[in-house]
Structures are given as C-alpha cells and as structure tokens.
Amino acid sequence: MNAQPKLSANNIDEVMKAMTLEEKAKLLVGGSNNFFGDQAAVGGEADLVAGAAGTSPAIPRLGIPATVLTDGPAGVRIDPTRKGDTQTYYATGFPIGTCLASTWNTELVGKVGETSSTTRKTRS
C-alpha cells in the first residue's frame, strides 16, 4: 500500500489527487453539515467560535485539519463576546463586491482593499 501524502504548503496538488470524490464533496458541503448520512445536521460551531457559520471537515489520513468558517461575502461576522472570556473579538464587515462595484468608485474600492490588507497584517 502506498503511503498517503500529508498536506503541506508544497504538495497541495499531490494531496488533491489523493482525495476521493466524496472527500472533495465534503469540503464543499462542510463538516457539520452531515449531508452524507441519514441524520443531516447543521450547527455546533458556536461551541468553537461564537457566530461561526460552519466548519470544513478534517481528513486526517491526508493531514487536512478541520477549519472553522465565517459567513462570507460581506465580511467576517462573529459574536464579539464569548462565554467565559472577558476579551472582545472585533471583526470588520464591508459591502459585498457587487455592491462596491456598483458604486463605480474605484478610489473607494481601492481604500477597502487597502484597509482589508492592513487589518490582516496588524492582527497576524
């Protein structure tokens, strides 16, 4: 039996080739959304990150970890406070891309992009 590749920054194509069709489909559907069994379920992420929108499933044989996801196109929307934690978690939400594009204001859209880039750098 061939050894399975373990996910790293340098072997994504190899890992994708080693994935089954079902594993690829599960990554598209999500981890907590059990649409492959007889008990479809959504939820449970709030225990991990308050306000989370879902998870991607782990695929341990290929070294792919589960990932907690947020709800998308308008930006990260999470609950700012968490049970048992005094810290406040902030997130920035911008209008979705189609709304920004409909302004025809390229300077404004550029500023949103710069702000998003700066926010990522300062929080890393």
Which helices and strands occur, and which strands form pairs?
Elements: H1 12-18, H2 21-29, E1 54-56, E2 67-69, H3 97-102, H4 106-123
Notes on the protein architecture:
Strands 1-2 form a two-stranded antiparallel sheet. With 124 residues, it is mainly α. About 9% of the residues have low confidence. The relative contact order is 0.11. It has four helices and two strands, in the order H-H-E-E-H-H. The chain starts with 11 loop residues before the first helix and ends with a helix.
Question: Any low-confidence stretches, pLDDT <50, length ≥5?
Answer: 33-43
Number of strands: 2
Describe the strand arrangement of the main beta sheet, using strand numbers: 1-2
Query: Can you summarize the main beta sheet?
Result: 2 strands, antiparallel
**What's the helical proportion of residues?**
25-40%
Compact overview of the structure:
With 124 residues, the protein is mainly alpha-helical. It contains four helices and two strands; from the N terminus they run H-H-E-E-H-H.
Properties at a glance:
124 residues; 5% strand
